[in-house]
Amino acid sequence: MTEENFNPIPQPEELDIREKEDAMGAYLMMFAALGAGLPLPILNLVAAIIYYYINKGKSLFVRFHSLQSLLSQLPTSILNAVAVFWGARIIFLNYAFTDVFKGYLWLVGIANLIYIIFSIIGAVKARKGEMYYFLFFGRVSYQSVFRKKAGDGRTVINQPPKM
Amino acid sequence: MKRNLRDLGIIVIVALVIWAGFTYFSTTTEQQDLISLKQEAEIADYFNEQIFREFDSIDTELTDSVMHVILNRLAKGMDTVSYEYDIYVLRSDQVNAFTAFNGQLFVFTGLIEQTESAEELAAVLAHELAHAENRHVIKNLVKEIGLNSLILIISGGDPVVMQEITKLVVSSGFSRKLEREADEYAIKYLRDANINPNRLTQFFLKLKQKNKSLPSGFEWISSHPALKERIEFVSENIGDSVEERAIELDWSSFKKSLGQYSM
User: Alpha-carbon distance A53 to A41, whole Å?
Assistant: First the structure.
């Protein structure tokens, strides 16, 4: 996997304000969705996917940050959803409140905290026009967004019709 | 690609370590454990005063020894014995038995009347012992009146409040979850003490048949909700059949001797 397979990374001075704000919006938008999706954490996933597709056509910089934000919230959303269903079983179906569930709640709390902290850092960096890579999700997003697709950069030479 | 897998692995492992770590180190302090045994003994003093004001206790050598024999047998099936248990027989027509504080169990003569053997009473007592061992009464009170008020009451011993608590304890209205837990333990106690756990369901069924619509006075049954569900639960969880060793007591003469005290 060489550098040549990837499109060049935009530098801060090459980006206009609009792009930087769209990129920052990707992180902030997830926060709003996370809040709204609290009772049913699946809702914010839907919002995140919609945001990603709206911004897909924009510059690579915006796409990268949208995708990173979308992917990085997947694990927390799944953890939250499981916590809600597990908790509902305990409350409504009288399942036992075990130490395993307690430990799980700690995990969910810590995961959400890490997610929120990194999203804020991501939003600030995006506003400054910087690339910022989360562990794992950063590289996956970069590879997905910046990899050259077949046909990219091919120069078209107009030819006369065959005689 | 390799790095992606490595990073994903790191995330998953860190998450699992956090989960396992917090599971292992989270010591669930149940609220009933916040009331010490000494405090419980103090409530017991107030409570007994109240109970013996309302009911006559039949405190003869015979009742003492009979209860002692049954208790000793049941103790063989218990892996923890948290209290020095006392069983009091109270004179009343109510078909009731209840667990109070500090390992004190109360049985009404009305309930003993309904039993046909010592083993049947042992089954009822096993259920009450299970409530006591798991500190269900304290748990229930904490739920009903809150931990802080309970601690206040213990230090104050307000007679009016104690009267309310007494009513609550005598009616022994436990949640379905606590009843199920008590049944679970009772089955275990009875099995390990060589008494057929079916005795418990037998006693339920007998009462149910005798009294199609439960009249007032059948507190022990009416305070134990969803009787049908419990019978099913007990019979499902009994496991292999138990070879019963009879409790050597002359039950009918014991009942007859109680008869002279009945109202």
Answer: 20
Residue A90 included in any domain: yes
Dist CA B93 CA B134 (whole Å): 28
Q: B21–A104: do the CB atoms touch at under 8 Å?
A: no
- State CA B196 to chain mean position distance: 18
Across residues A14-39, what is the average pLDDT? 80
Encoded tokens for B144: 């009903």
> Do residues A135 and A36 make contact, with C-beta atoms less than 8 angstroms apart?
no
DSSP letter, residue B106: E
Of the partner residues B4, B11, B22, the one whose CB lies closest to the CB of residue A106 = B22
Assess whether pLDDT exceeds 60 at residue B83.
yes
Task: Quote the minimal CA–CA distance from A148 to chain B in Å.
Answer: 16
Tell me if residue B28 falls in helix, strand or coil.
Answer: coil
Domain count, chain A: 1
Give me the pLDDT at residue A127, please: 92
pTM for the predicted model, two decimal places:
0.58
**Of A44, A133, A122, the residue nearest A52 (C-alpha):** A44
For the stretch A93-135, pLDDT in tens is 767 777 788 889 999 999 989 988 999 999 999 999 988 899 8
Helix H, strand E, coil C: the string for chain A is: CCHHHECCCCCHHHCCHHHHHHHHHHHHHHHHHHHHCCCCCHHHHHHHHHHHHHCCCCCHHHHHHHHHHHHHHHHHHHHHHHHHHHHHHHHHHCCCCCHHHHHHHHHHHHHHHHHHHHHHHHHHHHHCCCCCCCCCHHHHHHHHHHECCCCCCCCCCCCCCCC
Q: Contacts of residue A103 in chain B, CB cutoff 8 Å?
A: 18-24, 26
Residue A105 in any domain: the answer is yes
Query: What residues does each domain of chain B span?
Result: 32-259
Backbone angles phi and psi of B3, in degrees to 5: -65, -40
Domain-embedded: residue A3: no
CA-to-CA separations, A144 to A33, B1, B55, in angstroms, rounded: 24, 12, 80
Domain membership flag for residue A74:
yes
Cα pseudo-dihedral B226, B230, B232, B234, rounded to 10 = 180
Q: Which residues of B touch A106 (CB under 8 A)?
A: 18-19, 22, 26
